[in-house]
Specification:
Strand content: 25-35%
Distance between the termini: 49 Å
Number of domains: 3
Number of helices: 14
CATH class of the largest domain: Alpha Beta
Number of strands: 17
Shape: elongated
Radius of gyration: 24 Å
Structural class: alpha/beta
CATH superfamily of the largest domain: NAD(P)-binding Rossmann-like Domain
Helix content: 25-40%
CATH architecture of the largest domain: 3-Layer(aba) Sandwich
Length: 436
């Protein structure tokens, strides 16, 4: 059969890895696909200095519009990032009748509904495995491998930078900003690390996972997002003493009232496999009714791991491009006319247990005042730990573990505790999940 002609936009980390792996493993890919995958056109802002592609075989340009408008290109691979120009290019490629493969989680999370609607109308495929968890095939696993199941919840470590920082804080007793500087020096974090450490990157990915897991529209703006920049070294230490580890999790859960979509630091029991995922690695735990819990682990970023997911999508598209539209796997796993309108809950409707840390005066009656507030708000306290005061100090660290409760109840209780004269400053709250 004739080769499938590929147009590649972006020759950076992922684009370069895609070009490298496509050429290095060409024979293996052809054996699996039944057709060869051939890059015929590539765009990059630094095209003159690239050494990955042979200009005698591949048309090279600095203008990405040349790629999407090339009539010979059958599949466009978008690896330029961002969601303004990328959106315009992808929609134009679809308008031109081309299939699209992208690793752009922000593009899919924010503009995915518009893009999928356009693709459906045009009869083309948009594939996005590399947009979540890098080389871990989590989209395909949920969409196809677990297609017989009703997914109950998904919980994932889906940002390697945040996981690296929390791992270093736990293993070496370091402070957040000290580790962040190292992460930037190692290239794990950008000069502006906001997307990683404040949870925005993870929220993009969780938005996609929730849509594929539950068959709901992509709703990034409804994803509750909290970062790790306020996690203190003592919280990491206390959590470990209590038998927990702090991980920055993205959690999507189906409840009777609606869907919870939230990204935040989370205490999880150290015995859980996902609690032992360290460094820059990613892991996603999926709980479904038929198979139970399944765990997917691997590198969440990097040149060739992400390229692996991009090329897997290319192979899938190449296999399906000549099939009748009705015989293809739905892009979000559910037929477009069968997407659910189940509501996404606001954050005050979430139900979680909590770890609370506060600085209290070391005198009789303070603990009784605190526990009375929680009792009045109908919140059960599972454990109380009072640390010994430091020498010369009159205040002590007070730590409470609560049972599961609605977020709005916990908000009211924390606000009341902070008003006590014996409590100094703000109460630190970290949500808890047992993932059982």
């Amino acid at each position: 059969m004739k080769p499938v002609k590929i147009g590649l936009m972006g020759l950076g980390t992922v684009g370069g890895g895609t070009a490298t792996v496509l050429q290095r493993n060409a024979d293996e890919i052809t054996r699996r696909c039944g057709r060869s995958l051939q890059i015929v056109h590539a765009a990059s802002l630094e095209i003159a200095g690239q050494k990955l592609l042979d200009p005698a075989r591949v048309k090279l340009t600095e203008n990405a519009w040349d790629v999407v408008n090339n009539p010979d290109v059958e599949i466009v691979v978008e690896l330029i990032g961002g969601y303004t120009l990328a959106r315009e290019l992808v929609l134009k490629a679809i308008e031109n009748g081309k299939h699209v493969v992208t690793a752009n989680k922000a593009l899919i999370a924010i503009h995915g509904d518009e893009i999928f609607k356009a693709a459906q109308a045009k009869g083309v495929i948009v594939a996005f495995e590399a947009a979540v968890a890098g080389g871990v095939p989590i989209i395909k696993a949920i969409r196809e491998g677990l297609a017989a199941n009703r997914i109950q919840w998904v919980a994932g470590i889906i940002n390697g930078t945040g996981n690296f920082i929390l791992t270093e804080m736990r293993e070496k007793g370091r402070d957040f900003y000290d580790v962040l500087k190292e992460a930037q020096a190692l290239g794990y974090a950008e000069a502006d690390p906001t997307f990683d450490v404040e949870g925005i990157d993870a929220a993009h990915k969780l938005t996609i996972l929730a849509s594929v897991a539950f068959g709901i529209p992509l709703q990034f703006k409804k994803t509750f997002t909290e970062g790790i920049s306020k996690i203190a070294r003592e919280d990491v230490t206390y959590a470990e003493q209590l038998g927990y580890r702090i991980k920055h999790l993205g959690i999507a859960r189906r409840t009777e009232r609606g869907i919870e979509m939230r990204v935040h630091p989370t205490l999880i029991p150290e015995r859980r496999l996902i609690a032992n995922v360290n460094g820059v690695m990613n892991a996603v735990l999926v709980k479904s009714d038929a198979v139970g819990p399944t765990l997917y682990y691997g590198p969440g970023a990097g040149s060739e791991p992400t390229a692996s997911a991009v090329i897997a999508d290319l192979i899938d598209v190449a296999r399906a491009m000549d099939a009748d539209v009705s015989h293809r796997v739905a892009m979000l796993g559910f037929q477009p006319n069968a997407m659910s309108d189940v509501p996404v809950l606001s954050h005050d409707e979430f139900e979680t247990a909590c770890y609370l840390r506060m600085l209290a005066e070391d005198k009789p009656g303070v603990l009784a005042d605190v526990t009375r507030i929680f009792a009045d708000k109908h919140i059960s306290i599972e454990a109380v730990i009072q640390k010994e005061p430091q020498e010369g100090q009159t205040r002590v660290q007070l730590i409470l573990l609560t049972s599961k409760v609605l977020e709005k109840q916990m908000n009211a209780a924390i606000a009341a505790v902070e008003k006590l004269d014996a409590i100094e400053g703000k109460v630190t709250r970290i949500r808890m999940e047992h993932l059982g």
